[in-house]
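Look at a sample.

——
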Amino acid sequence: MKPSSDPSILAHGLHFPEGPAFDPAGRLWFVELKGESLGMLEHDRVTRIATGSGSEPNGIAIDALARVWFCDAGRCAIRRYTPASNVIDDVATHLDGVPLFRPNDLCFDADGNLLFTCPGDSRTVPTGYVCCLSPDGALKRIAEGLYFPNGLALTPDGRHLIIAETRRQRLWRGRWDAGRKIWVGPRPWASVGGNIGPDGMAFAADGNLWVAIYSSGSIKIVTPDGEVEALIDVPGANPTNCAFDPSGTLGLVVTEAEKGLLLSYPTLGPGAALFK
C-alpha cells in the first residue's frame, strides 16, 4: 500500500541539501554540501553558518548539548558546531595516520559512540569503510570492503546497525556491540533498488525504516523483516536523506538535491527516538 501524502516546501533554492536533524529545542538543521554551510530553519527563516572554503558538509547528528556534528567530505573530517559559542571544531581527521576517506553520514549510539561511513571514491571498487569514534576520542574501523557505504541508522532498541551500500542498491544489517565497538555478523538484509541506490534513512516508531533512494525520486519503506513495503514519491529525482520531527509538527522531513528542496510530509510519522 502506498502512503498518501503531499509535501510542503520548507525551503527551496538550496545547494545540494543533506542532513536533516532536529536539535533539543526543535529547530531543524541541514547542510548544503555544495554551499559550504550548515543551515538552520526556525520560524520559516533559514540561517546559514559557513563551514569554510573547500568544505562539503554532509550528514548531521545532534547531541544532547545541541552541538551539531557533521561529516565534511571536502575536508575529510568529522566536525562539530557549537551554537552557544558559534565555533566549529575538527573532531577527527585521520585513521591510522591516513586522512579519513570523505566521511558521509553519522549517528550516535546509546553510549555516545559516533558511527560514521567513509565511502571515498568507492563507487566501482569496494574500498569504502565504516568507523566508530568513542567518547574518549579513540577511533576504529568497524567495517570495510563496501561499495559506497552511505546512510546508516541504529534500530530503535539500539541492538542492530543498518548501513546503506549505495552502489549495490542494498542495506546491510548486523548486531551492534557498543561495549566492544564491534559490528557483529553483518549481512545483506534488504534490496531496495534504485537507479543509484539508498542514501540516508530514518526509523519510524513502528520499527519500519524509511530510506531515501537517490536518483529515483522516492522514499522506500522497509519492514523489520527486510521487505520493501511501500514508497513515497518525492518532487525531484535526488532525495538524499530524511528525518522525523520529534514534535510531530513537520512529520517526515526530506532533503532533495536535484531541485534544492527541504520538504515536509506532515501526516507521516511518528519517528523512533534517536540516541544522543
